[in-house]
Amino acid sequence: MIPIEHYYLVSAVLFAIGLAIVITRRNAVLVLMGIELMLNAANINFIAISQHAGVPGQFFALFVIVIAAAEVAVALAIIIRVYRHFKTINLDEVNEIKD
Amino acid sequence: MAADLLTPLPCSNITLLALIALMLPLLSFLLNSGAVARYAWQASIAACFFMVLSSLISMIILVHVWNGTTFHTRMTWFVLGETGHTIGLFIDNPGALMIFLVTFISLLVHLYSTQYMKDDPGYQRYFAFLGLFTFSMMGILLADNLLVIFVFWELVGFSSYLLIGHWYHQAPAARAAKKAFIVNRIGDVGFILGIAVLWAQFRTLDLETLKEAMSSSSIQGESWVTSAGIALDTRWLTFMGLGIFMGAVGKSAQFPLQVWLPDAMEGPTPVSALIHAATMVAAGVFLMCRVVVLLDMDALSVIAVTGGLTAFMGAIAALTQHDIKKVLAYSTISQLGYMLMGVGIGAPGAALFHLFTHAFFKAALFLAAGSVIYALHQYAHRHQLAFDAQDMRNMGGLRAKLPVTFIVYLVATLALVGVPMFSGFLSKDALLSASFGWSEAMASEGHRWTYIVPVFAFTTVVLTAIYMGRQVLLVFFGELRIKGPADGLKESSHMIKFVLVVLGLFSLGIVWSLDPFDYHASWFLTLMPIPASSVPGLEVFVLDTARANALDSHTVVGLISIVLVLLGFGFSWFKYRPRASYALGYQGRAGFSFLEQLSFKNWYLDPLYRRLIVNPLMSFSRAASRTEKAIIDKFIDVTGVGSVIFAHIVGWFDRAFVDGFVNFSVFFAGKVGVLAKSFQYGKIQNYIILAVLSTILIILLIL
Q: Which domain holds residue A80?
């Protein structure tokens, strides 16, 4: 039996990698991927804890996956619109606030 | 003050007519001042027409008041606080006679002026001011209220200023106008003080009401108490009378303010006639006749003595003048002295009578003198001669050249001197008798000094005969003293002759009284109401005695005055007859004796005033102006410079501290804004970093 700490560790690493991608990448699609990673880090936590403590948490994981799928659909559509409008999906350039 | 005495009185037809007669000269003024220069002649004819209308209306009014009825219309003018001021028209016999006199003389002067002034560049202005002058004089005669009278009084002063200064581009005329105006102001100060006393005491200036109020007031101990219970020291009663008299002293040229009248000769001659006969100088006499019932014994005595003294002084000054108009001017002063003496001795009816007869014969004299001047002026113009057309030294022997003028002049002279059959005899006899009766009555009360008044009056009769005899002899008899061709000196136009003849006719005694030797038979005096004076403390019985004495003594007085006139004429024939040494040496006359100088210089009043009043006043004002410049201006300068310096300091403080503070707060707010803005610049990933960091921070805090 793998101890629970290992799951936590993987989950944390995964979340940190996702966060790092979200923060550092300039490409909107890659940022979306980072968000997916962070969601899946949370999913790992749900499932691991439900297995160890015997609480029914897998439903949450399912919900998260569904929501993530829906979110990706919406977000990709937004990115397409952004691309059409700005001719780029570089987040630094998608900016209408002027100093 | 009892309010029922001040209720508005309804308008009657007569007062309405009087209002129209009053407004016509004003209309003439407006028309003449507003007309285009091209129509100046037509406008002046319209002015004459207005005066005809006005004198016709005055005649209608005169007929209606003939039986002694009075007409009074009054309305509330304005209300100050709780006291209302009224304004209105009041017409009684003297008033109606006076408006007739003023409009009639003014009409004649208008007619005369259309000829006399016809080449004058200021023709239109002249007629406009004649209208204004007549209007203001009518205002004095018709007003029922001292305040309104004062307003018109000032208007008369102002319009006389305009007319005397008609030739304002000549320095003497401008100076004379200014002098007349200023000297009149001095008198007006007294007038307004008198009005102020009456107002303080009675709270009204309506003359009819004042008469009632005056008779219901009384003297209690040292104070003068009205029926309403207002008390003043009794001296104010005398002060009031003297104050109003002071106004008359200025307007009617009495001692010591008579100095303006001779100088006023600088105006056009018809204006002199108007001023001397009917308008300006008559205003003072008329006013005194209106207010005589408000005067107490002391004020009356002062008036009598001043009048007598002025009559004497004016006559003396007239003895040696060379200017034909100046002789007449001093003669006017003298005759005005008679009139005010008449007011002072309680015979205002006789004073007004003399005012009337004097108005006609003096207008005749002035306009005849104007005719002489005009003729000589034309003569000088025709032959390119340069001489003063007003100087009697250049005249002489005009009898043959100007027959109509001569006859009118002679008739008017005889009237002025007081020869029986002529108008002046009647009125002067009335005044002389009254003065004699008055001093007798006063002497029986212990005031022996009052004999000085008839002494002055009788002396003046002799003097009048001398100076008028001198003038007629020097102007109309002998040979023409100016060297020049014999032809070209001729009588003026028919219009001037017509006016002269009309005035000459009015100088005949028969016009004024059917019995030319007895003034009691005169219709004029029977029209004059005997003033029912009821001033508290006035010894009415003295005035009654005076009147009775005058009745008794009038035959003697008449005879004495005839003798005095003959004496005067005899003296002047002896001294000034043609081919006597005086007349022969007259043209180059120089080397005056002191007495002659005294007369010629009008008692040295002008130099005296210059030394006593004008010069101290001038040096005082110069000193004041120096003080102003040296001290007050300097003080103000220092204050000004100090304020500027202080302002600079304040300005610096403002810039450095107040503005600094404001600028700093703005700067600070700006910086804070920039700082706050720096979190919000659209970098979505930075937002995420911040959100994550904050979440971690919150988690840390919670744990």
A: 4-86
Residue B115 near residue B127 (C-beta atoms within 8 A): no
Strand bridging mode B231-233 / B223-225 = antiparallel
The number of folded domains in chain A is 1
Q: How many CB pairs under 8 A join A and B?
A: 21
| Within-domain flag for A98 | no
The reply to whether A93 falls in a domain is: no
Cβ–Cβ gap B683/A22 under 8 Å: no
The per-residue pLDDT for B664 is 93
CA distance B166 to B267: 6
- Interface pTM (ipTM) of the complex? 0.83
Dihedral angle sign, alpha carbons of residues B584, B585, B589, B591: negative
User: Closest approach of chain B CAs to the CA of A97, in angstroms?
Assistant: 6
> Could you tell me which residues come within 8 angstroms of residue B46 by beta carbon, excluding any fewer than 6 positions away?
B28, B31, B32
Q: Is residue A33 part of a domain?
A: yes
Q: What residue type is B293 in one-letter code?
A: V
- According to DSSP, the residues that pair with B133 across neighbouring strands are none
Digit-coded pLDDT (tens) for B188-202: 999 999 999 988 888
**Which candidate from A23, A96, A97 shows the least CB-CB separation from B688?**
A23
Choose from A23, A38, A98 for mutation: most chain B CBs within 10 A.
Answer: A23
Which stretches of B392-451 are DSSP H helices?
Answer: 403-417, 423-444
Coil, strand or helix at B391:
strand
Give a yes or no: residue A94 inside a domain: no
Q: Identify the CATH number of the domain in which residue A17 sits.
A: 1.10.287.3510
- Record the pTM: 0.77
What does the pLDDT look like over A75-84, one tens digit per residue? 999 999 999 9
